[in-house]
Specification:
Layout: H1 8-14, E1 22-23, E2 49-55, E3 69-76, H2 95-101, H3 105-114, H4 122-132, E4 145-146, H5 152-165, H6 170-176, E5 187-188, H7 189-200, E6 205-209, E7 213-224, E8 231-235, E9 247-248
Antiparallel strand pairs: 1-4, 2-3, 2-7, 5-9, 6-7, 7-8
Length: about 250
């Protein structure tokens, strides 16, 4: 089922009542990237290795000075390659209205604090992340819902990304290991990796800008079942590697 493309007030009106659709129930679900399945509503494919990506923005500063912020959730094809912008008919351009109409104001409020762009409006950033990455998640396809209502898969996407981000307190994990933002210190990349891997349960990928300034992190997951209510299992981000040197800067916001 392919929904009509709607934006803004028209889209909000479409789901002004409580969302009626429900995703498929997945009995004995398989873990993504483990073989194959014809049931793409319960087995994420081809994008089965999910990367939850976070920013540490210092120039310009975005978000609280004691937290990293959300970049997105990207379905990696289990080998480092990506599919992008998979369904232009669902490239919704008013995520704010979708979330409000679905009664997800708490999710929206959280996004306004922790899912921020450093070079465009937040709404444009969210629209981009959904259209580029969210539309490529097989278990979020409209055909995976009973009584589907236009846009509810995007609501599920943003709700799940926010919930996942809350389980990944990068700033706190580093602080607990004695690694805090500093204008004068440098840190061993291996020490940062070790602290985060120990807390997360799998290797992470830290990225740098300006050669040695840490500014981004990839957390990898396989998903058992669908994205909406499946189990995210920490794993190595296959196909991704750090560009940071052995000693890095972690400046304060």
């Amino acid at each position: 089922m392919t929904p009509l493309y709607k934006t803004g007030a028209a889209l909000a009106a479409t789901i002004s009542l409580a969302l009626a659709g429900t995703p498929e129930t997945c009995a004995n679900p398989k873990t993504s990237c483990s073989g194959s399945s014809t049931n793409t509503c319960c087995f994420n494919t081809p994008g089965g290795l999910f990367q939850q990506v976070q920013f540490w923005d210092t120039d310009p500063v975005t978000g609280p000075d004691t937290s990293w912020t959300i970049h997105g959730l990207w379905p990696n094809n289990c080998d480092g390659s990506y599919s992008e912008s998979c369904d232009s008919s669902r490239a919704y351009t008013d995520i704010t209205s979708l979330l409000k109409a679905a009664g997800k104001t708490s999710v929206l409020d959280y996004m306004d604090s922790y899912w921020l762009s450093d070079d465009e409006g937040n709404e444009a950033f969210w629209d981009h992340e959904w259209a580029t990455h969210g539309t490529c998640i097989s278990t979020l396809d409209p055909s995976c819902y009973s009584d589907y209502t236009t846009g509810e898969e995007a609501v599920d996407f943003f709700t799940r990304v926010v919930a996942l981000f809350k389980t990944l307190p990068t700033y706190t994990w580093l602080k607990d290991a004695g690694i805090t933002p500093s204008d004068s210190k440098t840190y061993s990349l291996s020490d940062m990796n070790s602290a985060l891997e120990s807390a997360f349960g799998a290797p992470v990928v830290l990225l740098c800008q300006d050669t040695d300034v840490v500014y981004e992190i990839y957390y990898g997951f396989h998903v058992k079942g669908n994205v909406q209510n499946g189990t995210f299992e920490p794993t190595t981000s296959t196909g991704s590697s750090s560009n940071c040197p052995d000693e890095v800067q972690y400046p304060p916001k």
